[in-house]
Amino acid sequence: MSAIGKIVATRLKSSGLIRSQALIAGKWTEAYNASTRDVISRCRMSTKAESVAMKLKSSGLFRSQAVIAGKLTEAYGGHTRAVVSRCRMSTKAENVATRLNSSGLLRSQGLIAGKWTEAYDGKVIEVTNPATGDVVANVPCMGGRETNDAISAAYETFSSWSKTTAAERSKCLRKWYDLLIAHKEELGQLITLEQGKPLKEAIGEVAYGASFIEYFSEEAKRVYGEIIPTPLSDRRLFVLKQPVGVVGVITPWNFPLAMITRKVGPALASGCTVVIKPSELTPLTALAAAELSIQAGIPPGVVNVVMGNAKEIGDALLASTQVRKITFTGSTAVGKKLMAGSANTVKRLSLELGGNAPCIVFDDADLDVAVKGAEKEFKMDAELKYLREELTLLCKTSEEKTSPYSSRDRAKLGTKFRNSGQTCVCANRILVQEGIYDKFASAFSNAVQKLQVGDGFVDGVAQGPLINEAAVQKVEKFVQDAISKGAKVLLGGRRHHLGMTFYEPTVMADINNEMLISREEIFGPVAPLLPFKTEEDAIRLANDTNAGLAAYLFTTNIQRSWRVSEALEYGIVGVNEGLVSTEVAPFGGFKQSGIGREGSKYGMDEYVEVKYVCLGNMHG
User: Could you say which residues form the signal peptide (predicted)?
Assistant: First the structure.
């Protein structure tokens, strides 16, 4: 564009006369299918030029790499691929992306055997900011060949890493933790950029994710064996714990850092090597964490990262006899496929799958305890202050001094609406005892109404966008199903006026257990309220699901807290507490919510084999 053209365009833009959305019912509107934004030349390509570009692209003549020694080549640093917001990224987001790019943490290549690597066929996928639709970076669309090379690198490195002393592995992990904390601001910004959650919440995730690396750096020195008293005097019996081997790590988009560190921490501490497959929606955080692992002195080949074609990568991990274990966080449907696919090579599995968390509010509950308990859980040190601040932000309402239910409501906000409801332990169903149901519904709706929705980089925002258009459509489907079966929308229930994938914080009443919203995981900012009469009714409703990950109950009756906790068929139960996850406690579910545990000393057991050794003829 010429200089004069730029001046004119700038003036028009500031005047509000340049519009880039359709007008429907008086609202400026994006295409409902967000993929339509991914067109060639987002800004100013003519129809004819677009047609030419499409033909060139399909012909294979449309290239965006240099040629060196006959090979199409990116800049060796890979940073030029982190094309920051080609057309319309907000100034703040663009500044963040630019700073990340210059810091060296905005990586856009896979990591195989310690080398930053492109897809062998040159294919790429776009990583977008869900709040704006802007392209943040292009990353390689890798497949089976790259994954097999990553597996080979991990397998070859395993022999040396597994023999490294526990003390040395501990030092490497501790250094990695120190670097994660030192770069918590940048990593938090990167999470917000590619995943959308509010910045303070994202920085809180970095602190939470780093805590697993710190914890397992210490546990690395405590992988103890055992001496068994022998039944025969000429024998000596002992037990060794040895690393499993190469681990395939498959992680989701909702916690781009923490789901990796919770798995990779114990794997590396026990002496395993890993091939990480992050979500193609949020690979940049994984790559940044891998860059810091290199800086921490973790040897090449111990940590490998591939992303792109999920099916090809998954098939390669499942087929390889060199991969001894798969650890996965994601949907129950995919978890079942991984179980079936692991049968041929009899791999060990850790699966953290879907949830359908009930949150039971008894009429004797005093949830001031929940707010105070959350502050205690998150430790009040500098690294975790952001979590307290975020909780405080969510808890402040004008109801605080006037409503007897305000503390209940405030505690639910953090349980239900953090990460826009996109966590497997979010309260999926809020069961409220009949005696307080109406007052609770009213006060809770008033509190939720005050949540600020917007771009995660904007101060004061408590809820960001959903991850993509498919996520919004799923929420819409669940809400409409509930309405068609008699539910009432007390608040929200529709897309937010901001457009894109923003959805209004929603509260629904008159929910029953036959609605989709009760039967399946919502993964969105929707709080369904279900009434119940008795303790027995609450337990029956809570357990009436195939999921069994997390459950919550609020009561001041200590006997009831024990009875209900023991009766709930869930791996995690929060009593008078809605934010329970911590590195020192086991995380995992019952029933179809998965197998195995993450975090705590039990998390180490998932990555070691138990070997029994018998020494005979010891009298000679």
Answer: none
